[in-house]
Write a structure and sequence with these properties.
This protein has about 80 residues and is α/β, with parallel strands linked by helices. The chain is built from 2 helices and 5 strands.
């Protein structure tokens, strides 16, 4: 399982929050986000990418310290049912 982070854009309900997602693949993480939020989010990052982005944002005074509870892929649910 891999850890991904998703951010939300300006004027969106969860602006300033980060949504962690634990999933087996990049595309599965994206589908889990689409299931929960539709297209009301901004960017997807791997755990390594997120550390770099978080550091750059901190240097610019943009806080991303509010994490939502993680979304975790159910490995026993057939992938064909994830939209």
């Amino acid at each position: 399982m891999n850890l991904y982070y998703f951010t939300f854009g300006a004027k969106q309900e969860f602006e300033g929050y980060v949504q962690p997602v634990v999933a087996s693949e990049y595309d599965i993480a994206r589908k889990l986000m689409l299931n929960k939020y539709g297209t009301n989010w901004f960017m997807q990052y791997s755990a390594n990418e997120w550390e770099f982005v978080k550091l750059n944002c901190a240097l610019k005074g943009i806080p991303f310290d509010r994490e939502l509870p993680p979304i975790i892929e159910d490995r026993y649910k057939p992938k064909r049912y994830i939209y």
